[in-house]
Write a structure and sequence with these properties.
The chain is mainly alpha-helical. The protein has one domain. Helix content is about 70%, strand content about 10%. The protein is built from five helices and two strands, in the order E-E-H-H-H-H-H. Helix 1 packs antiparallel against helix 4, helix 2 packs across helix 4 and helix 3 packs across helix 4. The longest helix is centred in the last third of the chain and has 34 residues.
Length: about 150
């Protein structure tokens, strides 16, 4: 592994080989690295927190519209998507909800991989075990969420 920078218990480890770090610092560093890998995987779905707020609003309005059996005025975010795609209000709402479900499933998978990996890393009794857990989780993230 390339050199890493880590801080543990007030001590900075700059340009250290992962295998040369104190084990507890290596474990912390590996946990930070899986967090970064998970962030990169999440960014493939939502690359901006403001977009997330927009998507959540669209999902909320689509759910509300569906709850009234697609009757009445089409909510603004649903209408915007309908206009942009040429869909009717019901189809636009359903497409928004389908995409929201796909995004939620991806985020849940990423969260599961991240937490499972960190649990294994925290139980590591040596550097190699921590590194293997990290490598396996990163490989899983990359296989399920490849770069665009």
């Amino acid at each position: 592994m390339n050199s890493v920078n880590s801080m543990y218990n007030g001590i900075q480890y700059i340009n250290y080989d992962f295998l040369e770090l104190p084990l507890i610092a290596a474990i912390q560093t590996a946990c930070e690295m899986i967090d970064k890998a998970a962030n990169q995987a999440r960014a493939r779905y939502i690359d901006d927190p403001l977009k997330l707020a927009e998507y959540q609003l669209a999902e909320k309005e689509a759910l509300e519209y569906r709850a009234v059996n697609y009757q009445g005025d089409v909510p603004p975010t649903v209408l915007c998507w309908a206009s942009a795609t040429g869909l009717d209000g019901e189809s636009a709402a359903n497409e928004i909800l389908e995409r929201a479900a796909q995004c939620d499933a991806a985020l849940q998978t990423i969260r599961s991989i991240r937490h499972s990996c960190k649990a294994v890393i925290r139980q590591a009794t040596n550097h190699q075990a921590a590194l293997e857990a990290l490598d396996a989780a990163v490989a899983e993230l990359l296989s399920q969420f490849p770069s665009k």
